[in-house]
Amino acid sequence: xxxxxxxxxxxxxxxxxxxxxxxxxxxxxxxxxxxxxxxxxxxxxxxxxxxxxxxxxxxxxxxxxxxxxxxxxxxxxxxxxxxxxxxxxxxxxxxxxxxxxxxxxxxxxxxxxxxxxxxxxxxxxxxxxxxxxxxxxxxxxxxxxxxxxxxxxxxxxxxxxxxxxxxxxxxxxxxxxxxxxxxxxxxxxxxxxxxxxxxxxxxxxxxxxxxxxxxxxxxxxxxxxxxxxxxxxxxxxxxxxxxxxxxxxxxxxxxxxxxxxxxxxxxxxxxxxxxxxxxxxxxxxxxxxxxxxxxxxxxxxxxxxxxxxxxxxxxxxxxxxxxxxxxxxxxxxxxxxxxxxxxxxxxxxxxxxxxxxxxxxxxxxxxxxxxxxxxxxxxxxxxxxxxxxxxxxxxxxxxxxxxxxxxxxxxxxxxxxxxxxxxxxxxxxxxxxxxxxxxxxxxxxxxxxxxxxxxxxxxxxxxxxxxxxxxxxxxxxxxxxxxxx
Length: 485
What we know:
Elements: E1 8-12, H1 20-29, E2 33-37, H2 43-60, E3 65-70, E4 75-76, E5 85-87, E6 92-96, E7 106-107, H3 114-117, E8 123-126, E9 131-138, E10 142-149, E11 151-153, E12 158-160, H4 173-184, E13 189-192, H5 198-210, E14 217-221, H6 224-228, H7 230-236, E15 239-243, H8 244-251, H9 256-269, E16 273-277, H10 292-304, E17 308-311, H11 313-316, H12 321-336, H13 367-381, E18 386-390, H14 395-402, E19 409-413, H15 416-421, E20 428-432, H16 439-452, E21 461-467, E22 475-482
Parallel strand pairs: 1-2, 1-17, 2-3, 3-13, 6-7, 13-14, 14-15, 15-16, 16-17, 18-19, 18-21, 19-20
Antiparallel strand pairs: 4-12, 5-11, 6-10, 8-9, 8-12, 9-10, 21-22
Helix pairs in contact: 1-2, 1-12, 5-7, 10-12
């Protein structure tokens, strides 16, 4: 049985999910989308995971969207010895430059130009801020630092320089190769890391145009500079990811909750998709049960209005990937059943914060939006049990999702890529129907599928929102339909 909920779950694939049987368990537990993290692994490895996911999706008969997460200008240290190194407070260490004969006092660096951009007194944070270094000197090829907060350091950990707007490009050479890989393997979404301005998002969209295609682009908000340009980023992006890990390191952890709530509200006002990510069930990488704080964190993201929640290491390398999804699904369902969804949290706007006040979308009210609103009024005011959306591109169903209807919404499409695009949309259950020639045939086909999947039964009254079959982008029909099967 597939677990049902309205908030969607995005799971990162990795060694813990490499068996098809595990992927099937994740789907049954409530996974709706899968993330391929291009910061780790190689293309052949990722290709195998995408193929196995497609097999599992067909076996369970549930469309699963694939999001390829580009690394972006993520600064990382290089390869250390397998056991890593222990850094002690007060210790002097060299970062970058030539390999040292004393590996316990040398940290390799994947960004050779970093030493030219930092000065004495700058702070460097490693491994999500758990280790802190203070720059004491630089020769423009390497940094000499003093450890101010020690810890155990292993290969490829992330590096942050709070307060510095570094010159590295957002869309790197590696990202361009990874984007070509994503398109070759028919990924459904592309996420760009460390977005700073709307220009960064446009760079990816322009690259997609050069490939003569388009994919939804998700801007990951991890830099304080992104908050300063957030309205423009939301305008140009198809979705936003609140990536709380690096955002908490760069912004300071106490400011993340207010940023999360306001970003979600801004996306709701602009009809944009929003994902909340990082450390949602972090303890379950090792533990079979979450902390109470993690459960509250998930619930609050649901109350705030997130469309989708993401699991990272919990499913990629964790000991209990399917159990983590099961627990997240249970928390989402319980949270959705409360009245908090009707009372969104007010925007927090402390003094000296970036301008995060809400701004309504500037686009004019369209006929499509008016059709959606009318169908939702009819759904709410009638005794209809559900809304059925027949869609070619998925756009109408996406608009329905952002209105947060209380009753079930089924989205029917003959196109598998459209169903995968809808897999992460709040409250939307995507279902495949055959291509037909007339609107009557379309509704009949939807009725058959809905009854087979136990989403409807004879005598149900449903609201149908559709266009003249098989036209794309022309939603112009609202009707009340009685299920006859």
